[in-house]
Specification:
This protein is an alpha/beta fold. The chain has two domains: 201 residues, Rossmann fold (3-Layer(aba) Sandwich), CATH 3.40.50; 91 residues, Rossmann fold (3-Layer(aba) Sandwich), CATH 3.40.50.1100. The protein contains 14 helices and ten strands. Strand 7, helix 9 and strand 8 form a beta-alpha-beta unit. Helix 1 packs across helix 8, helix 3 packs across helix 8 and helix 5 packs parallel to helix 6.
């Protein structure tokens, strides 16, 4: 975490901040569609409603949090420029938001990030600074750029305005389909899970909130079970958007008291679910957002007879890396 991000003793934001965020970001975001799949319903035994954030601007839910956080800054801070670190989607989202709101953007990105995400970030006009794919290098590069240029940090998940913005996807889903028994979303740094949990608390009765993450990057599951933040050292998973080394203190403050459980799936199950989404739902989706679908297909969550909402988080796919894996999947 960058300097100044030690937020363990801060009070969490209220669920009503998600309701306010829906109104604030409406001029710039898309109200993404909801799809269903008879095949998926048969396989898992529930009625599943999928919020397609792959159709959001920049192809991911991350735009919601980025535009909300940037819109909440003063014009003077925006004009001075902002910085973040990201493996791709948040970087793209902040770059696009910066172009819309007139803020210079710098993104510190691991050199191993998918080329499609790096190129898109550059295409939105951001300056990209590469770092090694580890916690220390990311923080060192970010702090160096802040000291050199005076950028304001917009953390990809440890930021209250980002969290509130991410929660708008789940709130829209509930508004569009009505009561849900369970809400499921993928977990990386925890911003989407925290926002989803806050959105769930805005309605009564509130749906249970479940996170899903790769078994090889299960720091969020271990954190929830231990009651303290646990870390992962450069986790290896095809779900590149979920490779964070630890959840943020702010997301953890929210979801540790509001999330029912976090389940995990294997790499093979993620690949199979990604192929299912492509072939049966006819959607271009990243492996990261197929993780909740994998949990449903594998029965990791009992949804028999229940109404289930899923946040399909994004569709920014590096085809050169993914297609061989999908072709080889059984």
């Amino acid at each position: 975490m960058a300097k100044g991000d030690d937020t363990l003793n801060e009070p969490a934001i209220e669920p009503t901040e998600v309701i306010r965020a829906v109104e604030r970001i409406a001029p710039w975001t898309r109200r993404t569609p909801v799809v269903t799949s008879h095949t998926l319903d048969q396989r898992c035994g529930g009625s599943v409603f999928i919020k397609c954030e792959n159709f959001q601007k920049v192809g991911a839910f991350k735009f919601r949090g980025a535009i909300h956080a940037l819109a909440r800054l003063s014009p003077e801070v925006r004009q001075a420029g902002v910085i973040t670190h990201s493996s791709g989607n948040h970087g793209q989202a902040l770059a696009c938001a910066g172009r819309i709101l007139g803020a210079p953007v710098c993104v510190v990105m691991p050199r191993t990030a998918p080329a499609v995400k790096r190129e898109a970030t550059l295409g939105y006009g951001a300056r990209v600074v590469l770092c090694e794919p580890n916690f220390a290098s990311r923080d060192e590069m970010t702090e160096r750029e802040i000291e050199l240029h005076g950028y304001h940090m917009v953390h990809p998940f440890n930021n209250w305005d980002v969290i509130a913005g991410q929660g708008t996807a789940a709130l829209e889903l509930i508004q569009d389909v009505g009561h849900l028994d369970i809400l499921i979303c993928p977990v990386g740094g925890g911003g989407l899970l925290a926002g989803t949990a806050l959105a769930a608390a805005c309605v009564s009765p509130s749906p249970r909130v479940v996170g899903a993450e790769p078994a090889t990057a299960d720091d969020a599951r271990r954190s929830l079970e231990a009651g303290t933040i646990q870390t992962s050292d450069d986790p290896a998973t095809i779900a590149d958007g979920l490779r964070s080394t630890a959840v943020g203190t702010r997301p953890f403050a929210v979801f540790s008291g509001r999330v029912d459980r976090i389940v995990t799936v294997t790499e093979a199950q993620i690949i199979t679910a990604t192929r299912f989404v492509w072939e049966r739902l006819k959607l271009v989706a990243e492996p990261s957002c197929a993780v909740p679908i994998a949990a449903l297909l594998e029965g990791a969550i009992d949804v028999q007879g229940l109404r289930v909402g899923v946040i399909l988080s994004g569709g920014n796919v590096d085809l050169r890396a993914l297609l061989p894996l999908l072709t080889e999947a059984p």
